[in-house]
Structure formats: structure tokens, C-alpha cells
Amino acid sequence: MMLKNKIRLLLFVVGLLAVSVAGCTADAEPPAFDFTSTENLSDGPNATVPLQFNNYLGNNENIHPKVLYFKTPWNGYKFWMAYTPYPLGETKAENPCIAVSNDGINWEDVPGLSNPLFDMFEVGYNSDTHLLYREDTGVLECWWRPHDQVAHKVYVCRRTTKDGINWTETEKMLESDNNIKSILSPVIMIRDGKYYLYYSNQTDIVMLTADITDDKPVWSEPEILPIDKGDLSLWHHDIINYDPDLLEFAICAFEPGGSHNTADLYYVTQNLKTGEFSKPVKILGRSSDKSAFDSRSIYRASILRVRGGYMVYYSAIDFSRHRHMALSVGTSPFNLRGYNPVVDDENDITEVAERAFFSVNGRNIKNSASLPFSVWDISGRLIDNSKSGEIEVPGSGMYIVKGLSDAFKIVVK
Questions:
Q1: Omega before 45 cis (within 30°)?
Q2: Which run of H or E residues covers position 251?
């Protein structure tokens, strides 16, 4: 990465050294950096450039993030993420993966770990990842939701690690039955010496509790959280517990007549002393720019509080069905601004004037095989997504073309 970009990132993350997601205590010291002054921020909550890191398939269509931040690096890294690839909604590709970072922006695979954590599901898929760190044992746990499409069963499974590289065998922690069905987006927390598992039943968020034992947990009866959500249907979510008496929810939800593919992101709190919930407030909506990567739907997000503010990693869907992950930051959930990573000439992208099925005719980049693709300018701004196998660019110059499994530069003269 060029020196100027390293300086930008350094300025952005100078203060990410205070609150550990492993713990639940907010840092009361003054903020170490100002979330509102970084030059790479959008004017509003939406990023214009998604995060740039490739999955095991070679593309960056990643969703379902859950990010933990450690004040003191855990096994060499401050940020740990669980996520799943999901290119064009291909469920076979949807398998739990782990990524690490020391600045929250530049992500990579764990050295020595081969993603994905779970082999491809022959009769279903592995979705909805979540990370939990056990302070009492120093163990990192990855939970996820396998869906057996033949048996019509949904499970919540877990693998654990002490070093991020060597993981235990898969444990089945919960399975669907007549009483517990869809189990979407499981979020697992530990409070008061118990597991708390929150999942969506496609309309509401449901809570289960269980004692922590070495055996398979014995879960309580499901309890629907009494969130005054109006006509909203609650889908994927994340929950944090930094203040002892406060839960903070980031929930993607949709209005009547919509679906999880037309969702926005809402913020909800619960006062644990009184049990009361706040009403959902929209903090990040779909982009009004129909060519944007987050124009169709806002999907599962991961919210974390870092000294001086909030970081929200959100996944999104565009109108060509591509999936991406992005980052928004702010001093509160109500003043988020999208962070736009710089795409520079040192990315590992092959420079060509023509490649495979792609050709250039005037200002048109064409794909003769009618495969989905997108075109970005060199700064990382999305130009368009293919709908007919052809995209017209605004002028001559260098553009980044992203296909299903690779990315490369293409010259328009």
C-alpha cells in the first residue's frame, strides 16, 4: 500500500487501543481520535466503497460479519471476524470463514488457517456466523447455522480455538423442533454465568438461555422479546453488552410488503434493570443510488464500541444480486458515516485491455458470456453492475472489472 494510504489508515486507527470487545466495560477516557474528521468518510452513513478482501473463492462478496476487538492483540491481532462468502446468493459457497486485522480495515486470512472452517454442506448450507470470546478460558468460539435441506432441520453449531489456527471438532449446540424452528442469525452472549442465545424467527427476535456446561446445553423455552417494532419484520441482528445494564442491538428489518432483500438497519436498546426496550430507530438505510453496492438491501451487521465511538460492519446486496461488506463509523449509532477504503495501483489486479470473455468497444465493456460483473473506477467508486452483459463507462481511463471469482484492470481508450 502506498505511504499516503498507510498514513490515512494510521490516523484513522490511532485510537483503536482502548475498549476490548472481549470485555463489557466502556472506556471513560477521552476519545483517542475523532470519527468525524477522517478524509475517507462519506457525508452520510453509507460507504461508497466496500471493504476489499477476498474469500477462499477469490472474490470479496462477503456477508454475515461478526467482529471482535481486543485491546491487547489476541494471538497477534486486534480484530477478529467471522463471516461467510455469498456470491450472488450461492448457498454452496456460504461457509464460515475467519479473517483478522490490526486496523479494522485491511483484512486477511489467519496465517496457518485454511478457510472455510467447515467443508461444503452436501445437502444444505452453513450460514449466519457469530463469534464469542470466553474471557474465563481464553477461548474463541465460532457459532453458525447449518441448514439441512433434505431433513428440513436447522442447527446451531460451534467450533472453538485457543490460537485461531487449530479448531475443535464441530459440536451441535441446538437443533430445530416443533417449538424452535427457523433459528435465523443466532447471537450468543454470556451473562450471569449463562448462555444467552438470540435468534430471529423471521418476524421477531427470540431468546433462549442455558447453563454453561461441558455437555450440550439444555435450553429454556423460547421467549419473544417485547420490542415495540410496529409493522417491521426483524431479520439478522447483532447485540453488544459494554455497559452492565444495557444491551445494544443492530437489527436489519423490513417493512410490510418487503423482504430480507429490502431491509434497512435499525438500532434498539434494552435496559437490563427494567427490561424495557427502546423503539427501533433507522441508522443506515439502502442507498438511493441504484448502482451502489448497498442499494437493494442492508443485511447482517456487526456493531462494536471502540474508544471514542462506534464501528458498524454491515453487509449489503445490490440490484445485480452481488453481496459486499462495508464499514460505517461514528461517535454514536445516530451519526454514522461510511468509511471508504482507498483502492490504489498496488492492488494485486492484472492490467489488461482484454481478458477472457471481456472486450472493449468504445466506452462499452462487454461480457460475451453474459456472466455477472461490475465495473469500478480506480478510486474504488462503483460505476455499474451488469444486467445485460455490457456496461458503459463515463470516459477513457483505467477501470477495475470484478467478475465472479477475480478482479482485474481494463483500459478504455
A1: no
A2: strand 246-254
